[in-house]
Structures are given as structure tokens and as C-alpha cells.
Description:
CATH topology of the domain at 19-129 and 159-213 and 313-429: Kinesin
Distance between the termini: 43 Å
CATH architecture of the domain at 19-129 and 159-213 and 313-429: 3-Layer(aba) Sandwich
Largest sheet: 8 strands, mixed
Bound molecules: adenosine-5'-triphosphate
Structural class: alpha+beta
Amino acid sequence: MPFDHGLGSPPAAGSTLDEVVQAVDDDSVLVNCAKPGSQILTKMFEFERVHGPGDSQEAVFEEVRPLLTSLLDGYNVCIMAYGQTGGGKTHTMIGSHHDNHSSSAARDQNGIIPKAASELFRLISERPVGSHTVEVSVLEVYNNEVLDLLAKDEEGVATGVKRDVITTATGTSEVPCLAHEPVCSGVEVMGLLGGVLRLRAQSPTLVHRDSSRSHLIVTLTVTSRSANALALARRMQSSRQEPPRTLQREFWSPRCARRATAPPRGRPAPAPPTPEDGPSSPASSPVSSPFSSPSPSPRPSISQEPIRTRLQLVDLAGSECHSCCRHLWCVWCRCHGDYCVVAGVSGVSGAALWESSCINRSLSALSDVLGALAEQRPHVPYRNSKLTHLLQDSIGGDAKLLVMLCVSPTQHFLTESLQSLGFGARARQVQRGPPRRKNTGLKIK
Ligand SMILES: Nc1ncnc2c1ncn2[C@@H]1O[C@H](COP(=O)(O)OP(=O)(O)OP(=O)(O)O)[C@@H](O)[C@H]1O
């Protein structure tokens, strides 16, 4: 990584002496350090897949691709990047050309979010027209506050509106009033994201000039409608009959409902609602309905209700060990809890220190949650931070979860790399139930 050689004296060209973290094969990382005057450290970590510095963004995305099929097959999916500041999380999740994701050079450098968004719409294009609709929401967790980056003020400008996280009656976490934007292509997703990324908190750290000081959570919510419901909708369209007005309420999002009556330019109109979309039966509707005719119609069933699945893409803020504890055997939790506050003596102070402390506390809370889940403790402290409360359903729930660890190979960042690898090892110990598929009746062709 560029910052690896930005501190201290750069190693001679081609030198690997400074590299103490190595990808030894497809699934193993070897940490091998013989620092003069200290004990030799040799430690092996195993993961599902390990990529070296030479691997392209496309190669990394290949790990993610199958999860998008899972998303359309009814699973929730969460992909998060974890690692020290400057370690390559934003590069991995978004890419290094934030502004223009569509030129071919930029496409090579695109990260998981733009690639996943276009792959998702490619997969949707292979399914029956109108069977899937997608909405995007963007949240930032900054200084332990949740900001809705798509929410607009009265003048229609996105400014980042503070939101709450609540636990619903069913025990899941939810953000009331969260803004969702309907999207129809990967380019549209990145256009929206490009517009709001400028709101994301950024400031320099000791090792990274453009460090993101907040956690970013981009969520693509897919609403899928079964083949039966679609067939019925088409029959209605071909007979040019209007659906009963009351049924329009059954779209889950008010924005979708608006779109059903007036689709924006360039977007296909969604299929009209069907009786199976909602609980109101034609008999109870005061409006004369085509479905009250004696002609046979598909029986309402669970499989005909729209289902929602969520793809959460998380670019975590970078963990940061300050120089007060930057030595080989530093215990990582010391600089990820309250101890961080004393790091002011190392040159970080005021707002930057507070930011840093909030980031480290929330990452510490994330690690605590993983620890509680790994040890199958009866209480999992999700609510100790907004980050873990928000991600509760993905970390401990029924989602397919992929954690991407971004580590530096150099000795200078050994402490941080060991900490990140330890976090990954802990995440692997978590034994959850198998990911749960939504709406078993949904048949996807
Ligand atoms: N694999 C890589 N190949 C080329 N450049 C990279 C790679 N990883 C990171 N970089 C570059 O290194 C710099 C830091 O990366 P990035 O912004 O992704 O770090 P980060 O982990 O998100 O940091 P922070 O947590 O401080 O925001 C960027 O300029 C990025 O383009």
C-alpha cells in the first residue's frame, strides 16, 4: 500500500525485508517477524481466502459474486471491510476512482460496491421483467451518531440527518424514517453514492491523508415478487383493468407507491399491485374489483407476497493505534478502549482525538459482540454502540456475512495487522445458525 513506504526510510527497491505479513497460499497468512532485540514472532492465520497485493479488484470481487445470487434467492447479505487506517478498506469497498466509475480505466479500479451494484442489476435483468425492484439507503456512523446521508432538507439538498436506531418488537434493529431511493442500475447507485460521499467525515490521520473518520453503510434493499404475482399482474395489464386503489398501500415503501403511479423518466413502470400483495380481499374492498369475478385466479399464498432482502455494504472507519503504544507487543485492546483518550500526548488532540476515540470504541464494541457470539454468551452487547446496534441483524442474525480484512504487509504496521488478523480469527469462531432464506415459497427462475 502506498502509505507503507510513506513513513520512515523507504526500503530499497524490490526489498521484501520490511514485509512481515505474507499470503503464503490461498487461505493462509504468515506473520513472521524477527525484530532486532525482541523475540521472534511467527504466527499463522487461516481464512476462507487470502489475496496478495498483486491481486486485482476483479479477483477480490469474485469472492463476492456468489453472494449476489444468494441475495436474489432470498438471503440477507452483509459485506464489511475491516482494518487499520489507510489499510485499503475504501479502496476495497468503493475503489480508488470515486468520481467516475464508468470509464474503463476506472472500472478496473472499482471496488466491491460498484461491482456488486452492476452485477445485481445484471442478475435482475435475467429474471422476469418487473419481478425485482431495488432501493438504496446510505448511513454514516460518526462519533457514535447515525446520519442518514440521503435524507434531504426543505430545499432538496442532502445534508446528513441524524437518525435513531431502534429494536423492533421482533428483536430486529431498524432506523425509522430512513430515506430510500429507488434505483434501476449500478450507474444510478454510484451516482447517488458519489453525491453523498462528499458528506462523509474525512480528516488526516498519522498515516493516511484522506482517512474516513466514520463507518459507512450502504444498503441495497431488493423487493422480489413471485412469478405467480407477476403473471396475475400481466393478466390485469392485458385486460386493461385498473387494480383496486386500496391495494396500492401494499407496496412496502411510500416511494415505491409513488413510483407505481408516476415512474420517473427512463425507468420501467413497476407491475401493478395484485390481490396477493396485500391482506385486503376483493370482497372487503368497497371498489369494484376485477378479482371478484368468477374467473379462476391464483390462490393467495405466502409465496405471492413481495419479499425484501438486504445487501449491506460496510466500509468501517480505520482502527488506529497511536504512537504511545506503537511497539511490537502492544495489547490491542488497550488502544481500542478508554486508553485511547490518553493518546493526546502523542500529538492527536481535540476533535480528532474524540473522533479517534469514538472509532476505536465502536470497533471495540464490534469485537466484543463477536466475542460474545463466539463464546455463545446469553447476552450479546449489541447496544453498546450504534454501529453494533445497526449491524445486529447481519452479525448475529440470519444474514450471510463476509468480513474483508485489509492489512499492511510491513513491519511498521505489525501491531495493527496482528490486531486485524486477530479480529478476523475471532469472527471465524462465531458459530451462527445457517443463513435463513426468506419466503420459502418464492420460486425464482
Ligand atoms: N490494493 C491497493 N492497491 C492500490 N492502492 C491501494 C490499495 N489499497 C489501498 N490503496 C491506496 O491507499 C490509500 C489508502 O487506502 P484507503 O483509503 O482504501 O484506506 P482505508 O483503509 O479506507 O483508510 P481509512 O480507514 O483511514 O479511511 C488510498 O490512496 C488507496 O487508493
